[in-house]
Amino acid sequence: MTLGILIPEFPGQTHIFYLRQLEALEELGIVAEVVSTRRPIDLVNIHTTRTKWSQGAQYLLPPTGGAVVQTLLELLKSGPKKWLKYMRIVFAMKEISWRERIRILGFSIPGAHIAWLARKKGWKHLHVHSCANSAFIALAAHILSGVRYSLTLHGPLDDYGPVQREKWKHAEFAIVITQLLKKEVKKKLGKDVPKLLEVAPMGVDIENWKRSVPYQPWQGIGSFWIVSCGRLHPAKGHHWLIKATDELVSRGINAKLRIIGEDNTGSGYRYELEKLIDQRNLSKRIELLGAVDELCVKKELESCSVFSLASKSEPLGVAIMEAMAMAVPVVVTEAGGVAELVSPEQEGILVEAESATKLAIALERIARNPDLALQFGARGRVKVQKKFHIHRSAAMLGQCLMKISISEKSSRGYLLKENA
User: Fold this and answer.
1) Residue 250: which H helix or E strand, with range?
2) pLDDT tens across 291-345, in order?
3) How far is residue 81 from each of residues 88, 89, 107, measured CA to CA in Å?
4) Where are the domains of the chain?
5) Which of 35, 59, 159, 343 has the greatest CB tally within 10 Å of its CB?
6) Bridge-partner residues for 198, per DSSP?
7) CATH of domain 224-384
8) Alpha-helical regions (H) of 258-355
């Protein structure tokens, strides 16, 4: 099977999961090709070992001269009947303004571009790793040309904007990354949820994420190294972790912190964190490493004492999985779907979000209890190996594609039989 994968603004610093899934799909014999809306505004291509897909990606914007011609031809080919059908769907969207409806109507242009690419490249299906505007593009492509599509939901439904019902109603199937999200989708969308709705968490390549030397817990000598990994955005709560590190020092722990990630959204959060570090005189204890490649992340995890992430809410957490795969104990906030990844007091410690003191207390427990740190780390590696390896999500996508293919063949067979 040849498959199109639509990923907005690819490749971004948080897109490592998509790249791993592409590799796993290839191992399953599924030819997956990336199409994206546009390149990231501040392109930080840190995934140097996976440039195959980055270099081969097709971009909808800005369009090339040839693509413009083919897109217009595709629109003409679809004909007035399909134009009107898409218009009726868009103008029936009551929960948004007329201006917003006109904007969504404009997605028919990149939708026609997708339809042309699907025809040119022989894609049998388009899978969309977003339920925001990219899902509108897939919907338009489907209405105009009949190309089938599916969705993966990576976070709370509300994060992806209004008018979700139409996006989901026309999808062949959908995959969500946690049981919590599955309940949310069923509750909010009801009968508009595709009949085929599966759960498959994001995952890591367990063979690639393993230690070269055994994990060594802190024994009270030298620095108690904390590592965190997540884009620099207020939702990741790095300021709480900085405050918690300060509290650890006041509790007699020689704590130091390295934060991996960058503020490429222009929110100014890096400046806020730098200001906080200076205000607390922590410049010799806390480093903001920026966006780094996978090898650097592994190096940091292999040398740290504990991994911590203070997110206000985390759908699941690939960075947490990576730390667990490296047998590092984790101290993370419990909001969102993290509890499906980290069982309290089994692989790590879950704490309430937005509390530096509770975070510091949990981190101190890891520092003061080397045996507990070893147990958490070992259990974390086992859990990721069993339930959160990358082949699980790739296999689920492959299974869903096979199910709809079998269903389609069965329907054709029935129709042929009836016509005979």
Assistant:
1) helix 238-250
2) 888 889 999 999 999 999 999 989 999 999 999 999 999 999 998 899 999 999 9
3) 11, 13, 17
4) 2-203+389-419, 224-384
5) 35
6) 175
7) 3.40.50.2000
8) 269-279, 294-303, 318-325
